[in-house]
Structures are given as C-alpha cells and as structure tokens.
Write a structure and sequence with these properties.
alpha+beta
Length: 78
C-alpha cells in the first residue's frame, strides 16, 4: 500500500472528534459525553491493540445511533 500512513489514534480521531469539528457538529457529535447523541460502534477487537495489517479484520458487532441500537451482528455472521 502506498500513500500517507497515519497512526490508528490519529485515524480514529479524524473520524470522530475532528470529523465533528469539520462538519460544525461538535456540540452534539464526535465524542461520548452527557448531552451528546451517543452514536457509536461496538467492535470485536480494539483497533488500538491490533497490528496495522490486521485492522481490516475488525468487525462491527453493534451500531448505536442517538443511544438506540440500530444494528446487531447475528451470531452466525462472519
């Protein structure tokens, strides 16, 4: 793979708090805080604890939007 490489921490921040700032929505999205929307994912592995080449193997187990579960992976899904 060629191109610019970032740390996992930097990439996560770009998709969360920095993304919220870029879209002028940091008052209600971007971080998990009281009074914010509570949009988040539950992953099967901690992206901060896996090797960079294993990041693509991380799977979404649950998706929450505004504090409500909108997706849960079935037990037999790969």
């Amino acid at each position: 793979m060629t191109g610019i490489r970032r740390t996992v921490r930097t990439a996560l921040r770009a998709y969360t708090s920095e993304g919220a700032k870029a879209s002028f929505s940091e008052e209600y999205t971007g971080t998990l805080e009281v009074g914010k929307r509570a949009d988040f994912l539950v992953l099967n592995r901690d992206p901060m604890q896996v090797e960079p080449e294993d990041l693509s193997g991380i799977r979404v187990l649950q998706t929450w939007r505004e504090g409500v579960s909108i997706y849960a992976r079935e037990a037999d899904e790969p």
